[in-house]
Design brief:
One of its GO terms (cellular component) is Golgi membrane. It comes from Galdieria yellowstonensis. It is a single-pass type I membrane protein. 76% of the residues lie in helices and 0% in strands. The protein has 72 residues and is an all-alpha fold. Helix 1 packs across helix 3 (41-52) and helix 1 packs across helix 4 (54-70). The chain starts with 6 loop residues before the first helix and ends with a helix.
C-alpha cells in the first residue's frame, strides 16, 4: 500500500524527511538556506522543525521504531 493512503507510513515518511533535512542542514547549511520559498522551501521548513523541536522529533522517531518492531 502506498504511503499516502496508510497513515502510519505517512507519519514515518514525514518524520524521516524532518530528520534528514535537519541532518543535511547541520552539515551544509547553505544548501537549504538558499531555497526558503517555493517547493524546495518545504525542506527548509522541515529542517527548522527538526532543529527547534528536536526532543519531540527524536521521541517520535523512537516511538515509530518501536511500533514498527512490535506492532507490525
Amino acid at each position: 500500500m502506498s504511503a499516502l493512503f496508510n497513515f502510519q507510513s505517512l507519519l514515518i515518511v514525514i518524520v524521516l524527511v524532518i530528520c534528514t533535512c535537519a541532518y543535511i542542514r547541520s552539515l551544509y547549511p547553505s544548501l537549504l538556506d538558499r531555497n526558503k520559498e517555493g517547493f524546495l522551501g518545504l525542506f527548509w521548513k522541515a529542517s527548522r522543525i527538526g532543529e527547534r523541536l528536536s526532543p519531540y522529533v527524536s521521541t517520535c522517531c523512537v516511538l515509530m521504531a518501536l511500533s514498527l518492531l512490535f506492532a507490525s
